[in-house]
Amino acid sequence: MTGLAMGPGILPLHASDYLPGFTLGRVFTAWELAPVLALLTLAAVFLYAMALNTLHGRGDRWPVGRTLAFAAGIVAFVLATQSGLAAYDTTLLSAHMAQHMILSMVVPLAIALSAPIRVTRVRLSPEASDQVTATACLPS
Questions:
Q1: 77-88 pLDDT, tens per residue?
Q2: Phi and psi at residue 56, in whole multiples of 5°?
Q3: Which of 86, 123, 126 is nearest to 102 (CA)?
Q4: How far is CA 107 from the centre of its chain?
Q5: Integer Cα distance of 103 and 66 in angstroms
Q6: For residue 29, what are the CA distances in angstroms to 24, 64, 86?
């Protein structure tokens, strides 16, 4: 703590003044909910599940590995944005950089392997599906 005495109702000046020491266990126990990110994550899971349901209803097969890749991407995203990493990201550079590595290297790879555009096209009309394909596959 700083040299100033803190009374009731006075907030510390820095997160390190009130956060306990960082341990690996805190990554899994010091969760903080970010409502917007949680809702976006739930929406993505819901849309992917709806598309999978449509595939199974038509009798099409979808590789289990793609579904597992999507789940791994979602778990990595939630771990980076809602777990103890998020609680300590403004205090510890190492936690902040771990978030960057997860969000820029693990999550995109896992989500790309899950083929979200391909599975989403199943729920769309042929015209809308063609539009999604044209937009997603723009030449660089």
A1: 999 999 888 887
A2: -65, -35
A3: 86
A4: 7
A5: 19
A6: 9, 30, 12
Q: Residue for token digits 């917007």?
A: 36
Report d(CA 11, CA 112) in Å as an integer. 43
> pTM higher than 0.90 for the full model?
no
- Give the whole-angstrom CA distance, residue 15 versus residue 9: 16
* 86: nearest Cα among 19, 138, 7, 8: 19
**Predicted confidence (pLDDT) per residue in 109-128, tens digit:** 999 999 888 887 777 777 87
Residue 59 to residues 52, 56, 62, 63, Cα–Cα distance (Å): 11, 5, 10, 13
For residues 58, 62, 66, 68, the Cα torsion angle rounded to the nearest 10 degrees is 80
3-state class (DSSP) for residue 37: helix
Tokens 């997603």 belong to residue: 136
Q: CA 2 → CA 5, 19, 65, distances in Å?
A: 8, 13, 51
Sequence spans of domains, the chain: 33-123
